[in-house]
Design goal:
- By secondary structure, the chain is mainly alpha-helical.
- It has a two-stranded antiparallel sheet with strand order 1-2.
- It has one domain: Alpha-Beta Plaits, CATH 3.30.70.20.
- It is built from two helices and two strands, in the order E-E-H-H.
- Strand 1 and strand 2 form a beta hairpin.
- It is globular.
Length: 97
């Protein structure tokens, strides 16, 4: 299940840097969570870090994006592989001067 940020968000900026998948971004008025990147921190932490740090408890599970833990794990693996591929493509070739 991906998480979502409700309109109770106070834009305190503490959740965005905590997301290991860069799923949290500033929307038109409040922070939002990209459900395609949100793994609820599966693969990184035992608990969603944004939920743990949010001072107003405005980050529930999104009813529109219900996923099993297995699905979240698969998403984590896909995102991790894509990030590694992007980093490898940006790295200079070995032996380059």
């Amino acid at each position: 299940m991906a998480l979502m940020i409700t309109d109770e968000c106070i834009n305190c900026d503490v959740c965005e840097p905590e997301c290991p998948n860069d799923a949290i971004y500033m929307g038109a008025e409040i922070y939002e969570i990209d459900p395609h990147k949100c793994t609820e921190c599966v693969g990184h932490f035992d608990e969603p870090q944004c939920v743990q740090i949010c001072p107003v408890a405005c980050i529930p599970v999104s009813p529109d994006h219900v996923e099993t833990r297995e699905t979240l794990w698969q998403k984590f693996e896909r995102l991790t592989a894509a990030k590694k591929a992007a980093e490898d493509a940006a790295a200079p070739p070995l032996g380059a001067a």
